Amino acid sequence: MKLVQESTPFAFINQVLTLFVFLLPFFIPAEGASLPTFVFVPGAWAPPSQYKTLISYLSSSGYTTIIEANPSLNSSDPDATSVLADATALRNPILPLINEGKQVIVAMHSYGGFVGSTAAEGLSTARIGSTGGGIIGLLFISAFITMQNQSVLSISEEYDQDDSFIIVNTTTNQTFPDDPEFHFFADVPPSIAQTAIASLQNQCAPSLETPCGPPAWSDPFYDGRRSYFHTLEDEAIIPAIQEDMLDASGVAWAVEPFNSSHCPFLSHLANVSAWMVQQAQKFVASF
User: Fold this and answer.
1) Would you state the pLDDT for residue 33?
2) Nearest 5°: CA angle at 150, between 116 and 156?
3) Cα–Cα distance for residue pair 253/250, rounded to 1 Å
4) 131 close to 101: Cβ distance less than 8 angstroms
5) Distance CA 24, CA 163 (A)
6) Would you give the distance in Å from CA 226 to the centre of its chain?
7) What proportion of the chain, given as a percentage, has pLDDT over 70?
């Protein structure tokens, strides 16, 4: 005789709870384990406050994010600024984390690709070794993928990118973008876009003209650990140039194409945050 157990709401709830208890350990880090720390590199003209909502989202997923303004943002001494100076400053928050044995993911937006790629060179866990800490992955969000000695202006010339929206004040040696709503925030809700526009600051011209150093992304250590959020409606770094930079790099990338303007963390916040967390989990799992 075949016995059939009648399903009841209580039985179903018990099954769900049993499944939840079984799966819970897979979503909670083991005791003593810690999540990697994001070090976020802003784009040109953008203060850290422009990324505060993204950082809040990452925090709600348990991730600590460190972000500091590039020294070339609104500096009182523009002539002293450069990509290399920005990269040197970025190492200040990264090195203490590594010395404490922590894993770091460098996330870069726009011009931040110059700064982050240069600063991260030589700081992977494979190159550091002794402390157990180091950079475990690189995230590019509509960011420049740079070769050594390139600059924003040289890439614009090489790829025939229209950079006429960058207005240079030759008296102050500062720059500011023309029509930032169109170039950066076209799909951002109007109230958020206006707040972002109001927060923009001058970017020192030498930071856009000076060359970067050797890029970290070319290190074979980052095979399977370099990811790109490809913005398909971008009017600042147009999609075709993003694709050309990816192709010219000669290495493999995990590319996430997305219908967004240049600042997807403002227009598609949940998507960008989820992508960053997903990539972080992948980087950690690769060890």
Assistant:
1) 56
2) 105
3) 10
4) yes
5) 50
6) 11
7) 88
pLDDT of residue 74: 97
Percent of the chain with pLDDT over 90: 85
Record the pTM. 0.88
Contacts of 281 (CB under 8 A, 6+ apart): none
AA letter at 35: L
In this predicted structure, the answer to whether residue 182 has a pLDDT above a threshold of 90 is yes
DSSP symbol at 236: S
Type of residue found at 52: K
Classify residue 124 by its DSSP letter: B
- Per the structure block, which two tokens stand in for 17? 């709870």
Q: Give the whole-angstrom CA distance, residue 187 versus residue 167.
A: 23
**Closest of 253, 8, 32 to residue 143, by C-alpha:** 253
Q: Tell me the residue type at 287.
A: F
Q: How high does pLDDT run on average in the chain?
A: 90
Q: What would the mean pLDDT of 23-47 be, rounded to a whole number?
A: 72
Q: Looking up tokens 């930079």, which residue turns up?
A: 245
SS3 for 171-188, per residue? Answer: CCCEEEECCHHHHHCCCC
Q: Are 242 and 146 contacting, i.e. CB atoms less than 8 angstroms apart?
A: no
* The 3-state secondary structure of 20-70, one letter per residue: HHHHHHHHCCCCCCCCCEEEEECCCCCCHHHHHHHHHHHHHCCCCEEECCC
Q: What are phi and psi of 38, to 5 degrees?
A: -85, 130
**CA 238 to CA 215: how far, in whole Å?**
22
Query: For residues 262 and 183, is the Cβ–Cβ distance under 8 A?
Result: yes
Q: Which tokens go with 107?
A: 């996330």
* CA separation, residue 183 to residues 189, 197, 203, 256, 263 (Å): 14, 11, 16, 21, 10
